[in-house]
Amino acid sequence: MKKFLRTTTALGLAAVVAAGCGDEAADEQTEGETDDAGDAEETDEGVDDVDDEDDEAEEDGSSYPEQDIDIIVPYSAGGGGDTVARILTDHLGDELDASFNVINQEGAGGEVGIQAMADADPDGYTLGVFGYPDNVVLENTVDTDFEYDSFEYLGAFDDVPHSLFVGPDSDFEDPDELVEYAEENPGEITVGESGALGLLKVLAFNDEADIEMSPINYDGGGELVNDLLGGHIDVASTSITSYDEITAEGGEPLGYAAEERIDMFDDVPTFEEQGYDLDLGVSRVLVAPDGIPEEVEAELSEALDAIGESEELQQAFEDANLPYRYLDNDEVDDVLEDRNENLQPIIEENADDF
Amino acid sequence: MDALEIFLGILSLDVFFIVFAGVLVGIFVGAIPGLNGAIGISLLLPLTFALEPQNGILLLGGIYMGGMYGGSITAILLNVPGDVVAAPAAMEGYPLTKQGRSKEALYYSIFSSMFGGFIGVVILILFTPPLAALALEFGPAEMFFISLSGLVVIGALTGSNIYKSLFAALFGLFIGMIGVSSVTATERFTLNMPQLREGIEVVPVVLGLFCLAEMFLNIGKKANETVQYEDQSIKRITVLRNIFKRKFLVLKSGVIGTCIGLLPGVGTTLAVFMSYGEAKRTSKKPEMFEKGNPEGIMASEAANNATVGSSMVPLLALGVPGSPTTAIIAGALIIHGIILGPDLFNTRPDVAYTFLFGMLLTVAAMAIIGAIGIKYFSYILKVNIMYIVPVVLVFALFGAYSLRNSMFDVLVAILIGVLGVVFKKIDVPLAPIIIGLVLGPLIETNLVRSMDIAEARQQPILQFMLSSPLSIGLLIMLVLMIIVVVRLRQRTG
């Protein structure tokens, strides 16, 4: 018995130490957590009053949020989409005086997590962050249960154009030289790509320049950059945000697929100005499952506007090497629907390659 | 900011606190079956946003280092490795525990981890640029040969019956095939289930085979039936002296760990089993392996902690993360506006050097916490197994769930756990299953990638795959390994 006591004490101590570390984490992460709890109680009382007077609730808008909000991210921790979600919840949490939980639900190129967002209760307590157009590519290429309209698009925060890079000892200095070589040697140029958008970019460039380059599939950006820099592939199709790591080792971008130059990369030419009509990139969006209550949507939009137009959020994105572009609840629908029309034909023409 | 200032900055109280806290958390999450360093790092990621960037990255580095060691504690004491990298520790350490030599095994584990971790970090500090250049040389062809040689290691692992090992390896390769082939986009064995499209993750399989199966087998056993001998105490100095006698083994394992740890994807798992196989090859008593040979513990533990340093080489030198854990660390730094890569040493030398030298501190912290903690860790053996089983089961299932918040992974773990019981009963070795599962997809994608590139360049596949001196060297190594493994099997009968 004595031994058992000693053991349990040891284990208990261990647990306390472990829990202590955990608590610390929680404490520092959201210093206002206890305050939040207090506020939540207040709002609970508020809700009771409001039940009788619905109008007042909207005016004072205090009924949402009254519990923690889950944010589903369909990618693993540490990637670009995850970074956006964490920056966003950090600022949105302060603005709404609420706690957010980021839940990474990766799998099947984002399908698993995006599906979970679509299936979630539209009560405003489960939201999601993903990189548009992952959802569109998925719904057009695999048999998904969600579609573009399964989501209420609340806002978009960045605009990361896709780019083509060449390695350190490349003979190609601009897209024309690449195209010229590819015309003479169809299929010989190898283009590493990862993710749905990576492949889409290769196919779209092939179509636009009427050439044939061979896409080589990679599971992740790390291996892709490694093989480009090591000279194992000729070109890498990846986001312009890989600029620093690739150029530091002597690689060069040939251009990026945006309508006009973006501030963060204003010394790199777009494909557009070099005569190739390509506009393709990722834009991280905050979504709710379709059918959330109007007042919740209004509350979220208002909070998003407040942080979205602030310089702090812009700074946080730029520090994280993400080109910031805020689109509010109204703008985001127009922009994304425009993009859909651009994407649809490329995806359909190349459906066999997915 | 000059070097002295940075160095003094490291010797401050908050850095010590952060390092110890990180290592402690790492050891705990590593020791708890189902959790590992990567999960610990994801859990504490938000905390780092509030810290200074160099402290944040050190906290995560500490968890990484501690987590790599922690898995061995439960591996040795309960035959439940917290992670794949601790599997050899279970294979050698648990038999020692059964002989009443658990403390000895634990000391071998912590001191070898310390030496391995030290070798890895020192190499990180001294040789980052040339090693990063070496890592770039590994293209699809080179990765194919090195992954294939990992499969050959299976032959060296298990003595009793080559057909059972072969079956285990093939079973692992089979699990690895499930999912949508990234190359042909064909669905393989997915049974129309969207969850199976991405394939089966390694973590639930490890948990099922190593944790759940062992716990299922323990159900119904009488208290402490497994450990028949009274636990002996041993002096630390005796263990250190024994390790010193095998210093070349530890050094070699540390270097193998460092070199293989550079490679993305395969890194840690391959490094651990390669060093283990190499230890068996050079051992004077290869027949004692899997019956409790400390050499196996020394080699695998030195190797897995050595990979911590080297998996950060591509991250620091090129900005390319080499493992899931380092990818999360990179993400944490990006939020602070710190972009990893060669520029880091110019733009933020404070962060770069604090991190490099701080990693040495994590090795020290791990050794101190481990060496002091062993007395307390081994109390686990005195706990009635009927209390351990439910606790481990809960943690293992929680770990399977937390990987990607998926109930499906929990079901996979349970199913594989039941299979694991069957395998254990009929003596099918478990380690080859994991090796097959980890390496199968790598072998396939790199072969197909090589074929795609060769086709694009209109070269015969063999000409492409043997077009670099490195790949020829790796092929020669592969052939030599096959010869060595065949000889080893003849020697051990």
Automatic annotation (TrEMBL), chain A:
Q: Which domain of life is it from?
A: Bacteria
The segments labelled Disordered in the record are 24-69
- InterPro entries listed in its UniProt record: BUG, Bug_dom1
What residue spans carry the Acidic residues bias annotation? 24-61
**What Pfam families does the annotation carry?**
TctC
Keyword annotations for this protein, in alphabetical order, are:
Receptor
Coiled-coil segments, which residues? none
- What family is it from? Belongs to the UPF0065 (bug) family.
Which protein is depicted? Tripartite-type tricarboxylate transporter receptor subunit TctC
UniProtKB/TrEMBL annotation, chain B:
Q: Which InterPro entries match?
A: DUF112_TM
Matches recorded under Pfam families: TctA
The protein's name is Putative tricarboxylic transport membrane protein
Q: Which residues does UniProt assign to the signal peptide? A: none
Domain of life, per lineage: Bacteria
| Domain DUF112 residue range list | 17-435
Q: Does the keyword Transmembrane helix apply?
A: yes
Keywords of the record, alphabetical order, are: Membrane, Transmembrane, Transmembrane helix
TM segments? 15-45, 57-78, 105-127, 139-160, 166-186, 198-219, 255-276, 315-339, 351-372, 379-401, 407-423, 430-448, 468-488
Query: What organism does the record attribute this protein to?
Result: Salsuginibacillus halophilus
Q: Which PANTHER family match?
A: TRICARBOXYLIC TRANSPORT PROTEIN (PTHR35342:SF5)
